[in-house]
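Morning F.,

Quick status update on the modeling queue. The single chain you submitted on Monday has been processed. Sequence for confirmation:
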Amino acid sequence: MVDEALYAVVMAGGVGARFWPASRRARPKQLLAIAGERSMLAQTIERLDGLVAPENILVVTSAELADAVREAIPEVPPQNLILEPQGRNTAPCIALAAFEIERRNPDAVQIVLPADHVIEPAESFRSALAAATQEARSSHGLVTLGIRPTHPATGYGYIRFGERRGAAAKWEPHEVVSFVEKPDSARAKEFVESGHYLWNAGIFVWETRTILSALRAHATDIFDALSGSTDPSELARAYAKLEPAPIDVAVMERATNVSVIPVDFGWNDVGAWPSLADVVPADETGNHVSGGVRVVARDAQNCVVYGDEGSLIALVGVEDLVVVQSGNTVLVCPRDRAQEVKAIVTQLENEAPEKL
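C-alpha cells below.
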C-alpha cells in the first residue's frame, strides 16, 4: 500500500545546455533517452513506483514543454503538470508545487527531486526516501539526501554533516553543519579525506507546512509572490518580478531545522557528455554509445558517442572524444573540454538561435 499522504515533485524545467546539440529548447536533456531506453524523466517517475501513487506525482516544467512532457510520461495525470511561465531556478519551482499540494492535502509530505539523475538500485533509493519521509514527519524539519563521495569531484556542491540524530538505522539522519558551494580540486580532496562531507544531490523531503513556513521565513518575496497565484496571467506577472533563486541558497542555508541522510547507492547527475561514461557501459570497441546510433570503430577507444536512431558514426584512430550527432548538427570535442559546450550554446543564442 502506498502512502496516500506522500507526494512527489519532479523538477523538469531545465534546459540541459551542456547536452547540446541533442538537448534543445523543445526537447531538453530530461526528455532524452540518454542513459536507457526511456527518457530520463520517465525513468525518474519509474523509480517512484510502489512508493508514491501516480496521481500524487506532480511534474513542474515550462509551458513550452507541456506537450512533450505529457508524451514522455503518459502514466502521470495531465492535471499533475505544473507549468512555470519562465524558469526562475528551484526555489520558485518548489514553492509553486508546495502551494498546489497544500490545496490538495495540507497534511502531505513531499519528496522533491530533479528529473535528470541516474540512480540505482531503485530499491535502495526508495528505501532511503521512505526513511527520509519518516524523519520529516517525526522532526517536522527539512530533510535532504547526501551522497557519500567516491572521489573529490569539483562539479558538485557539498554538505558538511555533524552529529547523528535518532537511533542507529540503515539510513541515519545527521545534523547539517553547512552547505558548501562547488570547491576547487584541493578543497574537494580535503572534504573527501575528512569523511565529514557529502555530495549535495538536490533531493529533499519535507512536510508541506514545513517548507511553506521556511519559504515564508527565508524567501518572503517568493512566498508572497506565489501564494494564491493560480491564474496563468497572474502567475506570469508574479514570475516576471522574481529573481532566480536556488532552494539551497534561498532556504536550506538559512534554516536551522535541516538534517541529511547519507546514502551510498549509485548516483550521477549526468551533468555533461563525459558523464555518460559512468552510466553507459563501454561496448566491445571500448566506447560508450547511446541514443540508438550505430558506431563502427577502428583503433578508437574511450569515446562518448550519441546519435539518432538509424544514424551511423565511424571512428578511426581517435580516443577520448565526445561525438554527438542530432539531426543535421554535429558536435566533436575532447572529453576534458566538454564543459565548454555551454559556451557554444551562448554563442549560438546570437549567431544561430534556430539551432537551439
